[in-house]
């Protein structure tokens, strides 16, 4: 090995630290991609696009939403896990990040090792809906009708790993029935099918359903949280209407490929915290029934701890139900 005098080594180290300092100061210097694992126009997409607009202002570069659909979000997660960890690819995902391991035994990424964590974003309640001319007009009638006609009922969802699928499965378990499930690439297209009366029932997030509930485009039976929600104060929970303990709440986090520089994550996280306080984001989320997470949850550490706890919670439940897709 060639001898290098100490001052040469010192100069090299100085050059290296100046280079990485310059990179941090310049970051981001071009457009950032925010990958969404479900179809455009759906609930995850709405959160991503509203947030992306605010992040663009903060970061001074466009944040471009890219929808990569399929297999309940695992197509997008696999893509992001293998993307260049250069600070220009981020990923928004929900509970599916924690249920994927149990649902897809042949998964090509590890939710705990393949990503850097950026922070949590919003919590979103779900709602149980049916097409406008579906016979039951309230939850009591829905329960009765579902038990008597299960084999005739179509339930739309966004595939295994989607929260619409989780909610629909828990609903069928609670009622002791089996509907015919129709998977879509996201609940955006599933909602179009419901509005077009091509499917009967859909369990979906308020970020997509509130405008349709308010416009009277659908039958609405209740919310999936244990407490009523302030945006729909008159809407009863499923728990209070006979499905004791029924609860599905959706949480969203932001990730980057493992190996993304810590200083880039710090810049993105700072922009995220500001975006989550912006009037445009807060008012749109309030209109859609979503709750912005508290500041202590807007951190990489909090999201990582949460994903781990959700994997520990859901893996045994889903395995016990035999709910894997391979
Ligand atoms: C979507 O954005 O389409 C939904 O979040 C899919 C789902 O998980 O139900």
From TrEMBL:
<feature type="signal peptide">
    <location>
        <begin position="1"/>
        <end position="24"/>
    </location>
</feature>
<comment type="similarity">
    <text>Belongs to the UPF0065 (bug) family.</text>
</comment>
<protein>
    <submittedName>
        <fullName>ABC transporter substrate-binding protein</fullName>
    </submittedName>
</protein>
<dbReference type="Pfam" id="PF03401">
    <property type="entry name" value="TctC"/>
</dbReference>
<dbReference type="InterPro" id="IPR042100">
    <property type="entry name" value="Bug_dom1"/>
</dbReference>
<dbReference type="InterPro" id="IPR005064">
    <property type="entry name" value="BUG"/>
</dbReference>
<keyword id="KW-0732">Signal</keyword>
